[in-house]
């Protein structure tokens, strides 16, 4: 996923990288046409993630676009119309698993640089019968005491939640292509 536009979305001029110094050194992409003045700051996209707990087990899912056997947390974009990140993550759990959130508890925020995302992670206890949404290929149930985590983004959220529950989760290696 490219982290910036190649051309100005207003006038179609090629964008040029320019350093912007302030409290952080940030690379921005600017339109060279002074009359246009478009600047793409390439800010991260907010994403919500759910550590779903259902009937005492963790629910991990595999997106249809992913190669097997990789499973992960339920995630989705924080939409402009979502009243709050908490309601957004409950919406995602309903859309993807057809489960009803009985609580939403903030775990933390995590960078996912490869996708230019800021992950807002929550523990979501849920009830109901799992019915997969259109984006998911399959799901699996994992005993929290046996769960392992992937050492990036949502995997770190899972690790932090497991540790807070008194578990000692171990990492596993993730291929570079995932």
UniProtKB/TrEMBL annotation:
Reaction catalysis annotation: a 5'-end NAD(+)-phospho-ribonucleoside in mRNA + H2O = a 5'-end phospho-adenosine-phospho-ribonucleoside in mRNA + beta-nicotinamide D-ribonucleotide + 2 H(+)
Family of the protein in this entry: Belongs to the Nudix hydrolase family. NudC subfamily.
GO molecular function: metal ion binding; NADH pyrophosphatase activity
Domain Nudix hydrolase: from-to ranges: 43-164
Keyword Ligase listed: no
Protein name: NUDIX domain-containing protein
Coiled-coil annotated residue ranges, if any: none
Gene3D superfamilies in alphabetical order: Nucleoside Triphosphate Pyrophosphohydrolase
Protein keywords: Hydrolase, Magnesium, Metal-binding
Gene Ontology cellular component list: cytosol
Pfam families: NUDIX (PF00293)
Keyword Hydrolase: yes
Cofactor: Mg(2+); Zn(2+)
Gene Ontology process terms (BP): NAD+ catabolic process; NADP+ catabolic process
Taxonomic source organism: Aquabacterium commune
Top-level taxon in the UniProt lineage: Bacteria
